[in-house]
Design a protein that fits this description.
four-stranded antiparallel β-sheet; alpha+beta; 46% helix; 6 helices; single chain; 191 residues
């Protein structure tokens, strides 16, 4: 009997040690724990049958994967780009009072660029942040949105124009204003 044609009635004709061996063989192929023995034959049949069914499902999924990979490879060979939905950025402000940035800090540069009415593109942000010290990369800028600006109490949202360019805008909590930047050593900038 192979596993593909195995039935519950076939399990009923097997001995306890045969059921344990089959169960453990299936469990190993599924990444599950082995058993030493079952309390009853009915329990052995029920649990082994469940493993048989899980093993069959895994085999069917594995058989379906190559077909999906082939379709993806055909699309790639034809030069069709993989469609990627553009969702934009929508980081809500914390609601806490916004804190000032240090004059000349990269946080201050981010705030100054993002507060403009037209916002800023990623290219503009990277160019502005490249003037002092080590330039940032796109993932660093996005991390700065979620970490640095969030700690200051701001949020960041983006819009995607008809030209496909994403523009980022500073979100200030309702009823608050952007405080002026402060010099190093000022206690107002801590936070």
């Amino acid at each position: 009997m192979n596993r593909q044609t195995l039935t519950e009635q076939d399990l009923a004709t097997m001995t306890g040690p045969e059921l344990v061996a089959l169960h453990n063989n299936l469990a190993a192929s599924l990444g599950d724990a082995a058993v030493k023995r079952f309390a009853t034959k009915a329990d052995a049949i029920r649990r082994t049958w469940a493993k048989v069914q899980a093993w069959k499902e895994k085999q069917q999924e594995a058989a379906a994967r190559p077909a999906a990979k082939q379709a993806k490879a055909k699309a790639k060979a034809k030069g069709e780009p993989k469609p990627r939905p553009r969702r934009g950025t929508d980081l809500k402000p914390t609601g806490e009072p916004v804190k000032p940035c240090l004059i000349g800090s990269k946080q201050a540069v981010l705030v100054d660029q993002l507060r403009r009415k037209e916002g800023a593109t990623m290219a503009e942000l990277l160019a502005a942040l490249a003037v002092s010290g080590k330039p940032w990369q796109e993932q660093t800028v996005r991390s700065g949105f979620g970490w640095d600006l969030k700690r200051k109490g701001y949020g960041v949202r983006s819009t995607i124009g008809p030209d496909g360019v994403e523009r980022f805008h500073l979100v200030v909590p309702a009823g608050q204003k952007i405080p002026p930047h402060v010099a190093r050593g000022s206690s107002k900038a801590e936070g």
